Write a sequence for this structure.
């Protein structure tokens, strides 16, 4: 028996498969998925996910087809409507999808486009010189992942229609009434079997369509919400294109020069368009596009822009005496501080990484952008000496601040290394040295810190109490920020260092939990901390390591029965369950009001607690939000408060 077990073990170790009689691997076991079935089986391969991002990606795919028509010079108006029953209708005045018989499929070209992967007018010929949807999977993927779709085409003087269910046609293409225009309308209803939570985000769609209207001059995009009686509508039309986009992004900022830099030029069959303007802000915003597709991870076009910007500004600075021969060059960070830039390239054969097109890989895009931007920027600086001086002064100031910050940062890191291996005295560390199992609670004040220290599980939970409010880093350069004891304590406790020395692999805790009181001061400190992480530790947010604790607002007791409520609505539900008479209600304003056992069972016990994970879905919108809340300009903050004042609950006076 022992020998038999040993033989089995040896077979497994050398990779010999055992046949238990339960499996078959013959020709009949090779499955061929036909038509759009692969999309329904593996939707994530085509739209990224079946969550909110993937759901909205369906809209982008259909809208991209209309935008490709506009970029090709056909049509100039698109209407996107949110309809009842989770339906979306997207209509344009382009040429209309062809409806005649396709020579290869022997079916209508409309049915071929709607029901066949990799079928479209973007693979060859002269239908589209540039296009965002180059794979030919867009509208067919939408069809595959929808419960119901209807395509309507005005072409050749008539209206043609065809309906589909889960990617399969319901009948043939029907020729209907006469039509005195051209264009395509696609109405679809996402399949609830694929998307478990179908909720379209009005603001998200609005932001995307506004962006597209800026990128294609003189087109009109209408957005309508017809889901209920309170219908609303927006119309976007921008003659200024991306120059208008830069001005829109900077509308709450103090700009450093009046004339927005703009260049639009062809280079070896590639169109390069760029616009930028400097502000007094410490952060920059750079948004990149390829064939109107947002590339959040940048790519070759972004690299070309940065290289040309840095080199051209350095050449101008030395030529005109803004930096001396003995001075070091301006760095990329120096010339991008406070920069708001839009880079848009249009090319015939874009090479995107993945179907969601997050990054552009064409090497020729770098060469084209580098060449066009360098020539255009040299001309701009020579023609606009006042603007050039303002830009140079901004960049030189950024360089001096960087050098001061480097000295301060090295002091912080050196201090950390010398003081008990980097840990501040106020930190009550955990015994675990495994980051994936460790968490740190950043709490407000010694009172809450003391309660948390008594309540915690010392093995994996660390506590870092803060004294008062940390510095608003939105208004301070790094050298000033690093002079703050509270900020230094956070940096040293995290272990990652900061700026170019930052290393996410050295993060000491994989759950960083902001644990603040449920009052105005607590909310303010939470916002200050989130500003710190957003501006200087974005990788921590991107990695999913930042959380906000959700301590209860109320403690309700009737006799010996105790319940906690985390919102006013939940309080009412608990009261109803307990019976309203004889219930004692305590509203917590601070963590210090809880004893350690209450704090553990409500806020710190991983089995019971509620936490919100902090994510950034739209970095540009988040950047604007932090500017409004935490920036120097008072007027935008005042407008924000006036707009949202009626939504405030539990305001402490």
């Amino acid at each position: 028996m022992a020998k038999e077990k040993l033989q089995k073990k040896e077979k497994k170790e050398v990779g010999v498969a055992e046949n238990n009689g339960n499996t078959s691997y013959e020709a009949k076991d090779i499955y061929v998925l036909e038509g759009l079935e692969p999309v329904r089986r593996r939707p994530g391969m085509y739209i990224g996910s079946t969550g909110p991002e993937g759901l909205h990606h369906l809209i982008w795919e259909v809208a991209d087809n209309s935008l490709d028509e506009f970029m090709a010079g056909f049509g100039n108006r698109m209407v996107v409507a949110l309809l009842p029953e989770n339906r979306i209708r997207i209509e344009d005045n382009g040429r209309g999808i062809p409806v005649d018989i396709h020579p290869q499929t022997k079916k209508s070209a409309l049915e071929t486009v709607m029901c066949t992967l990799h079928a479209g007018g973007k693979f060859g010929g002269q239908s589209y010189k540039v296009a965002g949807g180059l794979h030919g999977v867009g509208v067919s993927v939408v069809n595959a992942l929808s419960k119901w779709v209807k395509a309507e085409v005005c072409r050749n003087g008539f209206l043609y229609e065809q309906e589909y269910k889960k990617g399969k046609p319901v009948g043939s293409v029907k020729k209907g009434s006469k039509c005195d225009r051209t264009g395509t309308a696609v109405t679809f209803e996402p399949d609830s079997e694929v998307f478990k939570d179908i909720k379209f985000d009005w603001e998200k769609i609005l932001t995307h369509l506004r962006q597209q209207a800026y990128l294609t001059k003189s087109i009109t995009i209408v957005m309508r919400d017809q889901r209920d009686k309170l219908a609303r509508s927006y119309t976007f039309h921008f003659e200024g294109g991306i120059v208008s986009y830069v001005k829109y992004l900077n509308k709450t900022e103090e700009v450093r020069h009046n004339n927005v830099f703009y260049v639009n030029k062809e280079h070896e069959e590639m169109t390069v368009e760029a616009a930028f303007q400097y502000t007094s802000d410490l952060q920059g915003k750079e948004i990149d596009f390829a064939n109107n597709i947002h590339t959040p991870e940048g790519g070759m076009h972004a690299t070309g822009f940065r290289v040309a910007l840095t080199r051209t500004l350095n050449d101008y600075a030395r030529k005109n005496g803004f930096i001396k021969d003995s001075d070091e060059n301006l760095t990329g960070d120096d010339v991008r501080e406070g920069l708001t830039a839009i880079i848009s390239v249009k090319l015939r054969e874009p090479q995107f990484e993945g179907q969601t097109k997050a990054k552009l890989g064409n090497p020729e895009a770098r060469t084209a952008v580098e060449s066009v931007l360098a020539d255009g920027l040299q001309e701009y600086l020579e023609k606009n000496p006042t603007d050039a001086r303002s830009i140079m002064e901004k960049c030189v100031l950024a360089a001096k601040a960087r050098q001061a910050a480097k000295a301060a940062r090295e002091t912080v890191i050196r201090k950390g290394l010398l003081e008990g291996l980097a840990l501040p005295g106020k930190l009550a560390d955990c015994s675990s040295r495994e980051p994936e199992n460790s968490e740190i609670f950043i709490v407000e004040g010694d009172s809450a810190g003391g309660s948390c220290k008594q309540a915690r599980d010392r093995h994996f939970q660390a506590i870092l109490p803060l004294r008062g409010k940390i510095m608003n880093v939105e208004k301070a350069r790094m050298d000033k920020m690093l002079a703050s004891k509270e900020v230094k304590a956070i940096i040293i406790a995290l272990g990652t260092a900061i700026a170019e020395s930052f290393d996410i692999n050295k993060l000491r805790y994989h759950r960083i939990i902001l644990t603040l009181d449920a009052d105005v001061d607590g909310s303010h400190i939470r916002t200050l901390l989130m500003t710190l992480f957003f501006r200087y530790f974005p990788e921590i947010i991107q990695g999913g390591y930042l959380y906000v604790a959700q301590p209860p607002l109320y403690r309700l007791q009737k006799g010996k029965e105790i319940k906690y409520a985390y919102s006013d609505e939940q309080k009412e539900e608990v009261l109803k369950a307990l019976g309203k008479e004889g219930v004692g209600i305590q509203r917590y304003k601070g963590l210090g009001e809880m004893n350690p056992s209450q704090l553990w069972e409500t806020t710190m016990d991983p089995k019971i607690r509620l936490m919100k994970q902090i994510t950034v879905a739209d970095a540009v919108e988040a950047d604007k939000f932090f500017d409004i809340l935490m920036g120097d300009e008072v007027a935008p903050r005042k407008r924000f408060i006036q707009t949202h004042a009626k939504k405030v609950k539990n305001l402490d006076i």
